Amino acid sequence: MFSYRHAFHAGNHADVLKHTILLAVLRHMTQKDALNVFDTHAGAGLYRLDGDYAQTSAEAADGFLKLVASKPPQGFTPALQDYVEMVASFNAANQWKVYPGSPFIIQSLLSGRDKLKLWEMHPTDTKTLTANVAQLEAGRQVTILREDGFEGLKKFLPPPSRRALVLCDPSYEVKHDYARVPAMVADALLRFATGTYAVWYPIIPRPEAHDLPKKLKTLANKAGKSWLHATLTVKSSKLTQDAEGEVVRPGLPASGMFLINPPHTLKAALKDALPQMVELLKQDQNASSSLESGG
Ligand code: SAM
């Protein structure tokens, strides 16, 4: 357990999808009264795009770095422009050395009245996250909990402000995560029905991954809540062979975000942004996106 390190994946196409959506959600939710944000699987908080981990996998090269290098003649759609500018705010002009993870994206949008709780269980990533957060002037509005995020969320719901966003972004390195996500959301909806819930999941050829958004949709519909489901596919999930006949795994081909009680502004923002993500990040002719809503 805990072999997953987000540093290998920071800035990949899944982060582009997840963090563009996270930012668009927060832009809306931070406009009003005090907000609580709960990030159940936080990671290390900040990543080096020029560091050893990032270069080993080079996933950002096919994700965020490809996006910014593309310079589309018509410009980025507003949600993607906002995302690129947010990452730029962590870097010197025209340099892409640092990539902010969800804790720092969230924190950068909060005002003094808002609170952020972060769960992370990997010993090294908890240490790095703690050191990174300690550099923040507003560090006191952030609490880091080295415990299970699925379980830990329970004691904070409902939050006193009655306004909250829960981001659930597990690594899915253990199969059990696919069952724990809907169980956590079901429990959270009973405790706090009006919260906004955002779940990231990988789209890979295994039944649990396929079933996860269906389970979340059923939960939302049963609770009479609105929902939004966005996916981004950059390439085929099929295994291929290299010149020596060795089987080549494609790496993560696609991912999705499922939101319950999303801001009403989100669908319109993604309607333009998702096709542009496909256009700029596609790796083969199987690239596509989808956007569905209900409730
Ligand atoms: N949300 C981060 C971002 O967008 O920058 C990335 C998170 S990464 C996909 C998932 C993280 O969850 C890993 O750092 C892993 O160590 C951690 N983790 C795994 N199981 C956990 C659990 N039960 N509770 C809290 N954190 C966990």
Automatic annotation (TrEMBL):
It comes from the Bacteria. The keyword Methyltransferase applies. The record marks 4 as: Interaction with substrate rRNA. It is an enzyme of class 2 (transferase). GO terms for molecular function: 23S rRNA (adenine(2030)-N(6))-methyltransferase activity; RNA binding. Pfam families: RsmJ. The active site is at 169 (proton acceptor). One of its GO terms (biological process) is rRNA base methylation. Keywords: Methyltransferase, RNA-binding, rRNA processing, S-adenosyl-L-methionine, Transferase. GO terms for cellular component: cytosol. InterPro entries: RlmJ (IPR007473), SAM-dependent_MTases_sf (IPR029063). It catalyses: adenosine(2030) in 23S rRNA + S-adenosyl-L-methionine = N(6)-methyladenosine(2030) in 23S rRNA + S-adenosyl-L-homocysteine + H(+). Gene3D superfamilies: Vaccinia Virus protein VP39. Its EC number is 2.1.1.266. S-adenosyl-L-methionine binds at residues 19, 41, 102, 120, 148-149, 169. Belongs to the RlmJ family. Monomer. HAMAP family: 23SrRNA_methyltr_J. Specifically methylates the adenine in position 2030 of 23S rRNA. PANTHER family: RIBOSOMAL RNA LARGE SUBUNIT METHYLTRANSFERASE J (PTHR37426:SF1). This is Ribosomal RNA large subunit methyltransferase J. It comes from Rhodoferax saidenbachensis.
